[in-house]
Amino acid sequence: MTRDITMGKKDSASRIRWFTFAAPSRFYSLTGALIPWLWGAAIVLTLWGLYVGFFIAPTDAQQGESYRIIFIHVPAAWMSMVIYLAMAFWAAAGWAFNARMGAMLAHALAPTGALFTFIALWTGAFWGKPAWGTWWVWDARLTSELILLFLYIGYIALTEAIDDVRRSDKAGALLAIVGAVNIPIIYFSVKWWNTLHQGATISATAAPKMASTMLTAMLLMTFAFWAYAFAVVFMRARAIVLERESHADWVRQLTAGKEQYS
Predict the structure, then answer these.
(1) What's phi and psi for 79, nearest 5 deg?
(2) What is the 3-state secondary structure (H, E, C) of the chain?
(3) Is the pTM of this model over 0.85?
(4) CA dist., res. 156 & res. 171, Å (int)
(5) Is the distance from CB of 81 to CB of 183 less than 8 angstroms?
(6) Which pLDDT value is given to residue 153?
(7) What's residue 57's pLDDT?
(8) Which of 54, 56, 49, 60 is nearest to 209 (CA)?
(9) Average pLDDT per block of 10 residues along the chain, 262 residues long
(10) What span, in angstroms and rounded, lies between the C-alpha atoms of 190 and 187?
(11) How far apart are the C-alpha atoms of 230 and 211, rounded to whole Å?
(12) What is the pLDDT of residue 200?
């Protein structure tokens, strides 16, 4: 009996610690320390990845030099889908558990996800011109990726149009959750339909279909985009935290301290 009570107290204490780290004040403090390192990693990895991809990786036998856009296009497309799933997850968590930080993270993720989606579409068109002879076709993957951009824009517009924060969070969460259905459509579109878009270059169940230097450049750019995404999202989320938690004592003390040193 005593042991069960002790174990229950330990479990409760563990849950309290986890929820403590989800508090806006702790999030603000922790991310403030991480952001400079994330920016440094993003810059170094981007320069390294671009150098390997554009100067070291060999020329493609079929597409020539134009294929090198893949080192930006593919990681951007990956990020556009992953960030949407993260946005939908945090929006749903904020809605289901009334988690303030979850809703704020969803708001912070949306513009970055929209940016990566735009980059994926733009670089895809830039790559499609020499490969297909046209900037755009109503290909299944291209069309579903364009729908993803509209979902991001719709989420941002919807949440910004509603003044009440809670209603805004709930409406945005509903749109984000419903829109998540589009992610598997994007991913499996090349398998479900006969499309111009090539299949997966990198697969978890098969060997890479590219030279090792190409794969290295691809992974470096992917990690660079991850670091950039974390840095920008954390910065935006911190701004949202200060705006929404302006009534909290810790925010007042923080702003008072900044005014004192300015």
Answers:
(1) -65, -35
(2) CHHHHHHHHHHHHHHHHHHHHCCHHHHHHHHHHHHHHHHHHHHHHHHHHHHHHHHHCCCECCCEHHHHHHHHHHHHHHHHHHHHHHHHHHHHHHHHHCCHHHHHHHHHHHHHHHHHHHHHHHHHHHHHHHHHCCCCCCCHHHHHHHHHHHHHHHHHHHHHHCCCHHHHHHHHHHHHHHHCCHHHHHHHHHHHCCCCCCCCCCCCCCCCCCCHHHHHHHHHHHHHHHHHHHHHHHHHHHHHHHHHCCCCHHHHHHHHHHHHHC
(3) yes
(4) 11
(5) yes
(6) 98
(7) 93
(8) 60
(9) 48 46 85 97 98 92 84 96 98 94 97 98 88 81 94 98 96 97 90 64 57 92 98 97 90 73 54
(10) 7
(11) 29
(12) 59
* pLDDT value of position 6: 47
pLDDT (0 to 100) of residue 196 = 56
For residue 23, what are the CA distances in angstroms to 26, 101, 147, 168? 5, 7, 34, 20
Task: Report yes or no: 189 and 195 within 8 Å, Cβ to Cβ.
Answer: yes
State which amino acid sits at residue 155.
Y
Q: Give the amino acid at 143.
A: T
